Model the fold of this input.
Amino acid sequence: MPSIGGWEWLIILVIVVIIFGVGKLPEIGGALGKSIREFRESSKTDDKPNDESTTESKA
Done:
């Protein structure tokens, strides 16, 4: 699968600016960053076993 190069990113950025406008870009970027941050935090906590569930399954 080919990777996205510089021209492709430029075209995507122009389309996003046309659709949402320049004023909404910081808001969209902030929401995207927050979503990625929350996803990473939840994926880190899901990898660790929960002490309550392990003690309940042994009983």
